[in-house]
């Protein structure tokens, strides 16, 4: 049989998102109309709700959560680092390469209710959708299927939050999620598929704790302008405390 059902289980994000991405890319008018529809529908929830959801797609926050998840699967740490590094590189390179203007800069005044600060970089692809999809993929392909499935729902909500906030087009979030999934899926499949050495993973995790300290200090030094700043601060602080406790017990 030319098609194996196991492929559906492994590749369902690509099978689901690729046709939608192609459709939106070939029809800019549909991309714009879908944005207006979903952006308007986002008014049913307050701006604080969408900004808090977006924290699950914030790269610094996602990297902190991925570090915490690696404590459960230390053998997957090398793949995690490759997947995240690939995702961050793609986000930076594609945003700079395409330099796609964000909706408030293109649509007529009054069409977009901007709920957060407008980022200064390009719109395509969505880094938030990419980061959240990377997080969900790591859970899913590291054997934590139930948590990965639950977080997939969170990825969809993060994608919607970027439209409701008014900073991304539908094509941005669809391609971002697809790239985030592909980066982590490829890393889990081909980058140290049998896991890294336990000693090496433990040393890498210990080295990441100073980076967490620096991030926490940066958050304290540069407070945010909205309530989601507090959530980022709490997540970083909790993971740092948990990491320090693990490090002390391991000594």
From TrEMBL:
Entry keyword annotation includes Membrane: yes
* Protein keywords: Membrane, Transmembrane, Transmembrane helix
The keyword NADP is annotated on this UniProt entry: no
Q: Which domain of life is it from?
A: Bacteria
Please give the SMART domains that the UniProt record associates with this protein.
acidPPc
SUPFAM superfamilies recorded for this chain? Acid phosphatase/Vanadium-dependent haloperoxidase
Phosphatidic acid phosphatase type 2/haloperoxidase domain: residues covered:
77-188
State a GO cellular component annotated for this protein.
plasma membrane
Its name, as the record gives it, is: Phosphatase PAP2 family protein
């Amino acid at each position: 049989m030319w098609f194996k059902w196991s492929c559906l289980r492994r590749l369902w994000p690509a099978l689901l998102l690729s046709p939608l991405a192609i459709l939106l890319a070939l029809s800019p008018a549909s991309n714009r109309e879908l944005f207006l529809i979903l952006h308007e529908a986002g008014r049913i929830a307050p701006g604080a709700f969408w900004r808090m959801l977006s924290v699950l797609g914030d790269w610094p926050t996602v990297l902190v959560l991925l570090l915490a998840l690696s404590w459960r699967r230390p053998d997957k740490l090398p793949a995690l680092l490759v997947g995240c590094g690939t995702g961050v590189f793609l986000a930076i390179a594609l945003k700079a390469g395409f330099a796609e203007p964000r909706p408030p800069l293109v649509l007529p005044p009054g069409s977009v209710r901007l709920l957060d600060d407008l980022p200064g970089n390009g719109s395509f692809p969505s880094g938030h959708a990419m980061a959240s999809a990377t997080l969900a993929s790591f859970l899913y392909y590291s054997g934590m299927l139930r948590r990965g499935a639950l977080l997939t729902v969170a990825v969809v909500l993060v994608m919607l939050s970027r439209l409701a906030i008014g900073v991304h087009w539908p094509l941005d979030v669809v391609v971002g999620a697809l790239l985030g999934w592909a980066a982590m899926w490829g890393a889990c499949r081909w980058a140290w598929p049998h896991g890294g050495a336990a000693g090496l993973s433990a040393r890498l995790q210990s080295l990441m704790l100073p980076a967490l300290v620096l991030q926490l200090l940066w958050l304290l030094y540069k407070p945010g302008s909205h309530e989601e700043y507090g959530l980022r601060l709490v997540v970083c602080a909790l993971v740092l405390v948990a990491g320090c406790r693990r490090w002390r017990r391991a000594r």
